[in-house]
Amino acid sequence: MSRQLRTYSSELILVGLIVLAAVWSSGLSPYFLDTSNLLRSAQFFVIFALMAFGLFPVVVQGEIDISLASTLAVGSVLFALLSVRGVSLFAALPIVLVATAALGAVNGLLVAYAGLPSLAVTLGTMGAYRGLAYLLAGDSGVTGITPDYRLLGSSWVGIVPSSVVLALIIAGACALLMGTTSFGRYSYAIGSSPAASRMAAVPVNRTRVAAYALAGGLSGLAGLVWVSQYQSARGDNADGSILFVLTAVVLGGVSIKGGSGRAVGVLLAVVLLGTILTGMQLANVPGTSQTLVIGALLIGAIGLPRAVQLIRQRFGSGQLTAPAGE
Amino acid sequence: MTASVQTVPERLKERLQISGGSAALRIRFMGVLAFQALLMVVFTALVPRFIGWGNVQSILFTAAILAMVAAGQTLVVLTGNLDLSVGSIMGLSAYVVYDLASQAPVLKPYVVLVAIIFGVVLGAINGFLVAVLEIPSIVATLGTLSVYRGFVSFYAHAREVSVGELPQWARHLASANWLGVSAYVWLAVALVLLVGFALRTLPWGRKIYAYGSNPRAAYYYGLSSRRIVIGAYIGAGVIAALVGLLLGAQVGNINSLLADGIELQVLAAVVIGGVSIWGGSGTVYGAAMGAIVLATINNGLVLLGVQEFYRLIFQGAAIVAAVAVDALVQRRVQSATNRRAIMEVTS
Hints:
The structure holds two protein chains of two kinds.
Chain A: H1 2-7, H2 9-28, H3 35-43, H4 46-60, H5 68-84, H6 89-112, H7 118-137, E1 142-143, H8 147-154, E2 156-157, E3 160-161, H9 162-180, H10 182-192, H11 194-199, H12 204-230, E4 232-233, H13 242-251, H14 263-282, H15 287-315, H16 317-321
Antiparallel strand pairs in A: 1-4, 2-3
Helix pairs in contact in A: 2-14, 4-9, 4-10, 4-12, 4-13, 4-14, 5-6, 5-7, 5-12, 6-7, 6-12, 8-12, 9-10, 10-12, 13-14, 13-15
Chain B: H1 2-7, H2 10-46, H3 53-78, H4 86-103, H5 111-132, H6 137-156, H7 168-175, E1 177-178, E2 181-182, H8 183-201, H9 203-213, H10 215-220, H11 225-251, H12 262-272, H13 284-303, H14 308-346
Antiparallel strand pairs in B: 1-2
Helix pairs in contact in B: 2-13, 2-14, 3-8, 3-11, 3-12, 3-13, 4-5, 4-6, 4-11, 5-6, 5-11, 7-11, 8-9, 9-11, 12-13, 12-14, 13-14
């Protein structure tokens, strides 16, 4: 029992923080804790959740992808264009997912086979894909989405919005993928030590490309959620949302240096960030100041463990030599 | 030892010294120059007024702002890190410093000093996060990017600092022409030369190169990585804060979004100019050249009436291409170093 507690300590801390944030938010507005209101608010974070689950395997492998928001924009514009041209959703879904997965795979190929730093590559493609989205969407964007594309954002399964169900399904699939499949095990191995993985005959390059392609595809799927919720698509969709996504992944206990992290942590982190943002909206905090809080959380989530370690080293050096008392 | 060295033919030794390492780097810089020349020829052929003096002046002006910030960014990139928060530092410095000066006239003569203090503090925070708390620089500065920007909008409350509130000298400087070229261009030249000189001759600069090319070796040599990285971030912060003042004076009415998103262009300039993203290699002159290339592209595409998004695609492709070339150069340098090491051992 105590061992399990320790394994899941970061998740437990997140649950505690979610409860705190929920108490704070319900103090701001009595309507916050209303079930239907909660579920309605949850819809707005489905897009971020899907991108976060895409980014998660990439970060586990010790890489990064900051181009995902731009990939989402391309995906949403493609969905909107196909919808306007009368293509049915079932035909459009594979087309767009393959297209956005291909965009992700380009990142992966450049990182894995050309050996370029993932940050620089995705910094470049972030701009390039954004440009592509503008190019496809035109100046005025695309409107007039047909009803079948809107279904995801306007239907309910029982009392739960369909898009939230979708996010939960993806979360479960992501947990299975990372926890039980060889792709998942390879990802953790690569994140811990690429060189050792190579020697252990792990297909490092292929696994990397697969992770980037998956991230691209999930961003494309997030594009569908976007279109279904906002009923239009423009080139600047989701611009700047990578900060939220990266914060969610890191806050969820995924080490930015690779090799560790769980899907359930990412899900909880999205819920936590969603609760905080909803609370701040209730408190009428302007959007730009909300980014201040997210940025501070991002830094705090990564910096705090190290800060604690440093303080311990400085003030309690005697404890370092003694065996851990637990 | 000396006898055995002479058994290696002098010509071969010379070839070894030039081939690979420095030659690859020199070719890299020449490549940027050639690209710039190509751009100018193409744009002039398509739009004859591109090469007119008025247009060249406007290119130089855009390049001046970029080149100054890029000089600061170069310091950080040389240590193998990144600073995405320069745009936010520029915005924060411009808005908050000018606003403080207009509210407390006592501060007016000290505007530059206040900006420097802001630059030091904000840069030191970045450096602390990266060097002491060991947060990867991209994450740390992505965080401070939004924290600094969030602070400005929090402070500003959707208000603007209007032209009238700016100090007179700043307005004059923004419109001044020295020897037919904007004052900003001369300031940029001076700053780039100054930073280039500091990197080349001062211990501070040499340490940045030493740390960037091999952090481990620098550690064993007894260099303090923390001091070097924090120093580089402070340098970038101070330059960004000062350029923020210049940009603010030029824009006139400053809102809380000044210089939003400029970090991507600055980073593009640095990378295109041949400063290696792995650290330890490249110069501020290269970065300045990169800024000129970017400014030329922007200007040319506007003259051609090409829409904004082609610029984004072009810029993104340029970053990836430049990094790919750098990877080749780095491999060349690596193999040349290895070869030289083998020659020294065998001879």
